[in-house]
Write a structure and sequence with these properties.
With 225 residues, the protein is α+β, with helices and mostly antiparallel strands. The protein folds into two domains: 7-132, Glucose Permease (Domain IIA); 147-219, no CATH class. 34% of the residues lie in helices and 24% in strands. The chain has helices at residues 120-126, 139-148, 155-196, 202-219, and strands at residues 7-9, 26-29, 35-37, 42-50, 54-61, 66-75, 82-83, 88-92, 102-109, 112-114. Strands 1, 2, 3, 4, 5, 6, 7, 8, 9 and 10 form a ten-stranded antiparallel beta sheet that branches. Strand 4 and strand 5 form a beta hairpin. The radius of gyration is 23 Å and the shape is elongated. The chain binds zinc ion.
């Protein structure tokens, strides 16, 4: 079965980032905002936020095991909620003690940490779509381009391409809108000067240029950070 998300850290490994402690789960590299769905019917046992795991969700499956999801961005459930397999529980993120966007997935069996490796295929299967706005069809074109990638490259690569394109397309557009905005301001200034020295409609063109670039920037949500 092709892996949608690369395993960036296996269960049980010793890692410097963790101060040499044993890794109590499995890390799956994925773009922030990836939808995470419960892999089993169960109940939300708790929703946490701490320095280590960031936002975390504990799902008690009907067999008694607890599935732990960490470093989440947005959490879509609250304690006591019933979930069916496939229900959205959160969007993946990069919160807590994390070196990059990924999902930390862990298993508690009879209250003790257990190896979640046998569940990774289910996590891969149920996790997927990039969440967030499909504003201006940004999600659409990214997935369309991904469809054009030859099948010989494989579904896993195709999914990775689709996910990273969707994740970055909005960033690129926002960056572009800021550049347009700044160029627009330069053009405005030039048109005002030309208007002052007698260019017909110079002021009007300056006003229209400003409104256009300001609107574009507002629509794309480009905010300088
Ligand atoms: Zn981890």
């Amino acid at each position: 079965m092709p892996m949608k998300f690369r395993i960036s850290s296996e269960y049980g490994v010793l890692e410097e980032i963790r101060g040499g402690r044993v890794h109590k789960g499995i890390d799956l590299a994925m773009p922030p905002g990836t939808e995470l769905h419960s892999i089993a019917d169960g109940t939300i046992e708790k929703v946490i936020n701490n320095k280590l795991m960031g936002n975390g969700v504990y799902v008690r499956a009907e067999n008694g095991d607890v599935h732990v999801y960490g470093h989440l961005d947005k959490v879509a459930v609250k304690p006591g909620d019933h979930v069916d397999a496939g229900d959205l529980i959160a969007l993946s993120g990069n919160t807590g003690h994390s070196t990059g966007p990924h999902l930390h997935f862990a298993l508690l069996h009879d209250g003790y940490v257990a190896d979640p490796t046998p569940l990774v295929n289910a996590v891969q299967h149920y996790s997927g779509e990039i969440a967030g706005p499909s504003f201006l069809g940004i999600k659409g074109p990214a997935l369309f381009i991904a469809e054009k990638v030859p099948h010989s490259i494989g579904d896993a690569v195709k999914d990775q391409v689709a996910h990273s394109l969707a994740a970055h397309a909005l960033d690129w557009l926002q960056a572009a809108s800021i550049v347009f905005y700044e160029l627009g301001l330069v053009a405005c200034t030039a048109l005002i000067i030309l208007g002052a020295v007698g260019l017909k409609n110079g002021y009007r063109w300056a006003g229209m240029t400003f409104i256009s670039v300001a609107l574009l920037r507002y629509l794309l949500g480009g905010v300088a950070e």
